[in-house]
């Protein structure tokens, strides 16, 4: 299962990295080209938060991302090599499960959204700009929740089963994208 999940991990990771990069560049463009101070504040904060999302994907560990390649390179000719490959697989599975838990922590949704709430509240109170503030709140909620819900959790469930624990209840809504979808398809594990 660890090697089966790696392509989904890469697809999710690449999709969100490109999405956050596009949001960062787009919001930076609007920040520098718009004259409306309310729009500038919202795009500046939004671009900064999208940039943090992009940076987080690049910096935070994700052992499951290339587990299939790492395990495929290992020789299994002797019993010692097979034992070493099993130890490596266990370490990768545990590390991947920990990375999933860290990225699916509810604070990973709540804290960025609170930043958006505070910037939208500031813009509404300071500039009386209700619609830009509501647009920011809606967009931030959609991005944060989708990022959280679409995180592939196959390695986490495999790790739980491997340790003899019950795998988490699985709820999926992605009729067009299928299992392990990413981006705007919603795949959640609760």
Keywords:
mainly alpha, two-stranded antiparallel sheet, 72% helix, disordered C terminus
Instruction: Compute the number of structural domains.
Output: 1
Mean pLDDT: 83
Largest sheet: 2 strands, antiparallel
User: How much is the radius of gyration in Å?
Assistant: 20 Å
Query: First CA to last CA: what distance?
Result: 19 Å
Number of strands: 2
Oligomer: single chain
**Which structural class should the secondary elements be placed in?**
mainly alpha
Unreliable stretches: 169-190
Q: Kindly estimate the percentage of residues that lie in beta strands according to DSSP.
A: under 5%
Fraction of residues in H or I helices: over 70%
The neighbouring-strand order within the major sheet is: 1-2
Description:
- This protein is mostly helical.
- It has one domain (2-189).
- It has seven helices and two strands, in the order αααααααββ.
- It has helices spanning 2-33, 37-59, 67-73, 79-103, 107-127, 130-149, 154-162, and strands spanning 170-173, 186-189.
- The chain has a two-stranded antiparallel sheet with strand order 1-2.
- The radius of gyration is 20 Å and the shape is elongated.
């Amino acid at each position: 299962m660890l090697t089966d999940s790696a392509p989904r991990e890469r697809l999710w990771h690449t999709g969100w990295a490109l999405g956050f990069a596009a949001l960062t560049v787009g919001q930076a463009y609007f920040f520098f080209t718009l004259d409306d101070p309310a729009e500038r504040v919202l795009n500046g904060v939004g671009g900064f938060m999208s940039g943090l999302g992009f940076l987080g994907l690049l910096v935070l560990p994700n052992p499951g991302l290339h587990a299939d390649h790492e395990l495929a390179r290992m020789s299994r000719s002797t019993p010692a090599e097979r034992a070493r490959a099993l130890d490596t697989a266990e370490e990768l599975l545990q590390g991947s499960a920990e990375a999933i838990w860290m990225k699916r922590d509810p604070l990973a949704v709540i804290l960025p959204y609170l930043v958006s709430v505070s910037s939208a509240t500031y813009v509404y109170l300071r500039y009386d700009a209700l619609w830009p503030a509501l647009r920011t709140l809606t967009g931030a909620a959609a991005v944060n929740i989708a990022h959280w819900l679409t995180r592939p959790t196959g390695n986490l469930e495999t790790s739980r089963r491997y340790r003899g624990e019950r795998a988490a209840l699985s709820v999926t809504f992605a009729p067009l994208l299928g299992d392990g979808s990413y981006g705007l398809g919603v795949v959640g594990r609760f």
